[in-house]
From TrEMBL:
<feature type="coiled-coil region">
    <location>
        <begin position="42"/>
        <end position="76"/>
    </location>
</feature>
<comment type="similarity">
    <text>Belongs to the SEC10 family.</text>
</comment>
<dbReference type="Pfam" id="PF20667">
    <property type="entry name" value="Sec10_N"/>
</dbReference>
<keyword id="KW-0268">Exocytosis</keyword>
<dbReference type="InterPro" id="IPR048627">
    <property type="entry name" value="Sec10_HB"/>
</dbReference>
<dbReference type="GO" id="GO:0000145">
    <property type="term" value="C:exocyst"/>
</dbReference>
<keyword id="KW-0175">Coiled coil</keyword>
<feature type="domain" description="Exocyst complex component Sec10-like alpha-helical bundle">
    <location>
        <begin position="159"/>
        <end position="713"/>
    </location>
</feature>
<dbReference type="GO" id="GO:0006893">
    <property type="term" value="P:Golgi to plasma membrane transport"/>
</dbReference>
<feature type="domain" description="Exocyst complex component Sec10 N-terminal">
    <location>
        <begin position="41"/>
        <end position="143"/>
    </location>
</feature>
<dbReference type="InterPro" id="IPR048625">
    <property type="entry name" value="Sec10_N"/>
</dbReference>
<dbReference type="InterPro" id="IPR009976">
    <property type="entry name" value="Sec10-like"/>
</dbReference>
<protein>
    <recommendedName>
        <fullName>Exocyst complex component 5</fullName>
    </recommendedName>
</protein>
<dbReference type="Pfam" id="PF07393">
    <property type="entry name" value="Sec10_HB"/>
</dbReference>
<keyword id="KW-0813">Transport</keyword>
<dbReference type="GO" id="GO:0006887">
    <property type="term" value="P:exocytosis"/>
</dbReference>
Amino acid sequence: MSVEELEQEPFSVHEFVERLAWKTMGATARNTPEEFDPVILHTAFEKMIRDLKDKNNQVQRKIDKLTTECKEEEKRHWNRVAELQKKNQSLYTGFQTLDERISYVATKVVYLGDQLEGVNTPRARAVEAQRLMHYLGEFLTDEPLTSPVLVDPFQLHLTADVIQKLHLIALELPVGGRFDIARQKIAEKYDAVERELIGEFRLGQQAGNKRQMRKITNLLQHFKSYGQCIDVFITECQKGAFKHNSIFDDIVPLCVETNKLAKAVFSNSDTVMTKLVQNLFQGSIQGHVASRLENQSDPEVYLNNLYDLYIRTTKLTVELSKACVEHEFKLGDSTFLNKLTRSIFAQHLDRYIEVELQSLRSQFTMVLQHYYEKKDHVKRQIQTGGIYELKRDIQARIGTVTKAGPTIENFGGETFLSQEVAINILQDTRNAFKRCSTLSSQSDLASNAIKIFEVLVQYLVLEHIDYAVELGIQGIPLAEPKVEPEIFFFDVVSQANTLFHLFEKQFTDSFIPLVMSSQHHGFCMKRKRELREAMEGKIDNGLDRSINAIIGWVRYIFATEQKKADFRPESEDAPMHLLSPAAAKVSKFMHGQVKEIKNSLDGKNVDIVLGTLGQRYHRLTYEHLTQFSYNSIGAMLVICDVNEYRKLVKEEMCVPLVTQLFESLHALCNLLVVVPENIKVVSSGEQLATLDDSVIQNFVQLRADYRTARISTRLR
């Protein structure tokens, strides 16, 4: 093993020692411990250590040699640096001397230039004046112009320079005499030169000759028709520029390309770009808007077109503002684009809200009219208030006597509420709010939104939901019906709540953001709360009437179907029924009403209505049972009846208070069958513990054996 392995990369000391030991001892010594000889391994290590020392001495000598060479090279380098510094100092001194000499000569040259200019300027002015006087002389004669500068079409630029100066001179000439003819001829030549220059400018633009266009604009800057040159430039730029179906898609690219050309041709390119944009807005865009909004026979189409065009125009102004920054050109002041937009749409925006309200009223009227026509219903004037209520009660009393009550019209269960109608109205209103937020000025936004909201309230809440609730209330049977009542008001309540929730959602999502930051926000919240409270008041009134009708029919069943003999049969051999006929009818009727209530109402409304109905049902049942006397068989029958009532209340109404009331009533009925000796114990039970002693005493008195069994004595 050689020391050359030390120069291999990567080098590991551990692996080097292992390889040395392995090569020295061989594989046999590693497998057979008896053949391991440490002396051989020690000798090999000593030899390798000597080799490593020799290698170290060789490397150290090489390092010393390289160090010596490096120091000598460094010394030579510093010597060269010192020589270069001396040369640089010498050159710097020479440069200063030369700079002083150049400054001296330049001062002399400037002085001589000033002297020459002082002599040459008056001479040049005199020559120019002489030349202009010569050309003016030609205009003072009746002879045709002969100077090549004035008649040669190939010297048009020079002609323009001369004519422009002669035009200024002609303005200073005295009026009258021979100068009038000269002034007229100069003016005619001036106009002709202008036309020719503009013609050449147009040709140069069509050919893409920027150099020629630049020369002509420099000349025309001093002419009256410079603005006309800009107009020609703008007109030519627009030729063939509109390639898309929508004019708005082509304007920004047109402005960007035109700006590049305007910067190369005009010295006042920003003014040119401002005039171009103004021309586009007041020309192409305004014409497009006028053609789209010309037909106003259909307000909805007109409003949609107005909104679409205004959105596109405002989007265009944003893109133009961004292009101004990216391509470094300026368009008037900060309000320039907004003023252009306003000027285009001013006449439409000023009367926007009138058209919007007219359109909404027309659409909503048509939607409601179509719906009621489809239902074959003619809207009627709803009578409400105390006088109507009094009249209705008097008719009901008269009906009780004459057996013919007032006619109740329930329209066969039709609720006259439609989600489709509500969604159509809300969708149109949502679009109106969206248009209002865009087309209304900031000062008019809140008031315009309120006007739209009031239209929504009028047609959806008042003329549809409120009208249907009022019809539903009038269709509720009287409190003392003679036939089984058909109550459809619960369906009305369910649908009315659904539609009003949709109304409230749009109120929150679309309307409130428009008035949030205005002084009208509190008024709007109060208005919505009043609408909700008014509808809830009418619904509560209708629900109360519906419950009264239900209880009235139960009372009628009890009065007509329940016989005294049911609970006090004359013979114990009479057939035993599980339920009295009255209880069977009442349970069947109440089951249907509870099911209808649970299907129609939701949330807390179900618990409130069922709780009210259950408490009145319990009171009526209790009062009904206290009208009879019970023997043992009758007591068993009344317990079966009450158990049926309790089952209905517990399993279907699921109102804890009502359930507890019927549990107590059932416990009271048990007192009717308890042997006299146990009445005292049973009456002290848990279910009767909350009842007043007088209630228990009065109920026990209904027993047929109350006196004979001396029960009153046992209760003391």
